[in-house]
Amino acid sequence: MFPFPLQFLLLLLLLLLFAGWVNRRQLDAIEYLKEENRVLKERLGERRIRFTDARRSEPLVPNARPISARSDAVTGCRPASMSWT
Fold first, then answer.
1. Rounded Cα distance, 25 and 31, in Å
2. What CA–CA distance (Å, rounded) separates 65 from 52?
3. Is residue 28 over pLDDT 90?
4. What is the mean pLDDT of residues 34-50?
5. Predicted confidence (pLDDT) at residue 11 exceeds the cutoff of 60
6. Any residues with CB less than 8 A from the CB of 9 and at least 6 apart, and which?
7. CA-based Rg of the chain, rounded to a whole angstrom?
8. Are the C-beta atoms of residues 27 and 34 closer than 8 Å to each other?
9. What average pLDDT is seen over the chain?
10. DSSP for 13-56?
11. What is the rounded distance in angstroms from the CA atom of residue 66 to the CA atom of residue 73?
12. Phi, psi (5° rounding) for residue 76?
């Protein structure tokens, strides 16, 4: 009757429900952050945000390593070192 086993269809349904739930949570978080930014900009008015050199060099994410120190950073990737054959 079904082209796929019932267990596969149930697993697919659960996967789709989970993906929808995650998507909804992400949309809620984005909506919250947009509203928070709007309120903060309203409070700031026309003034510019001024950062010191020390503050500007701080990472936005706490405990984040610089890109050059990350093990997953691509290094030594030049067109001459790539083989297209």
1. 10
2. 20
3. yes
4. 89
5. yes
6. 2
7. 23
8. no
9. 80
10. HHHHHHHHHHHHHHHHHHHHHHHHHHHHHHHHTTPPP---HHHH
11. 10
12. 65, 25
